[in-house]
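Late entry, zinc ion complex.
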Amino acid sequence: MKENRYSRQILLPEIGPGGQKKLEKSRAVVIGCGALGTNALSFLVRAGVGQVLVADRDIVDLSNLQRQTLFSERDVGRPKAKVAEEILKEINSDVEIEGRVVDISFANIEKLVKGATVVLDATDNMDTRFLVNDACVKHTIPWVYAGAVGVTGMLMPVVPKGPCLRCVFPALPQPGQLPTCDTVGIVNTLPALVASLEVTEAFKIMQGKEPMKELMVLDVWLGEFQKINVKKNPACQTCAKRDFKYLDARERKFAASLCGRNAVQIVPARELQGGLSDLRKQLSRLGDAKLADGVLRFSSRDVDLTVFADGRTIVAGTTDIAKAKTVFSKYIGD
Ligand SMILES: [Zn+2]
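Prediction complete; structure with ligand written out below:
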């Protein structure tokens, strides 16, 4: 008789056959496919969570391989969400897995989290977390906040009746105020640890059990874990007043340098005219232009571009936003 692939977790009183069935009926949405995302996805898919969606805008870079455990050297240059989908399907063909190459914004976050049993934060920035918080509070979907930079991690499950992220952090930090893996680096054991804790909380939520109530702050280097009591803020803009200002924002960010990468992302205000195959034809006169996985890669002597179907472009080889905008106007247009 074929042994059940989940037998070792069914043996656990914390999960058991009933808990396993609940995992199989659940849908987990993972926002981000970097270090936290790849580790979390592996746990979710191996555990047999029925449906798993991962959304990420980025492509695999050599500097990601230190900590992003689903990728290898052959994946460099390909969209992370697509590579993750392929690898995860090989790990567990019972799970419905979808990788979406998308830049998460107010325009798509509600659609992404719709129908989720739980949403897992695996982003690298507070802007996206505030969007996730707005969308999940609005639609009564539990989610788990998680962050990892340097040797320090943070984690907090957000459930409908408990405090939300904005009860704890009322306002967005100023740009440059928080450390990023770009400015301080990251030890690769940290995201694996934070993802373990995050997915464990997600397992509890998927089984209808109470997750941890506190905000956890940990230091992987010192081996220190702290639990901080957090309370619902009766004046919270999001969960008390239900003013979802991040979802209502109509402003698109034009350009930003990417965390941990020598690259700038440009999001044009308008969609790409003519589509990627037309653009490939134009650019192939100027250098090497390849279209694969719905992504156009262009390189010439001094330029390296990755263009997505919506016109979003990653300009590699610079962190200078003005220079990247110039390259964008020259090759893609305004
Ligand atoms: Zn709140």
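The pocket of zinc ion is lined by residues 163-164, 166-167, 233, 236, 238-239 (CB under 6 Å). Will revisit in the morning.
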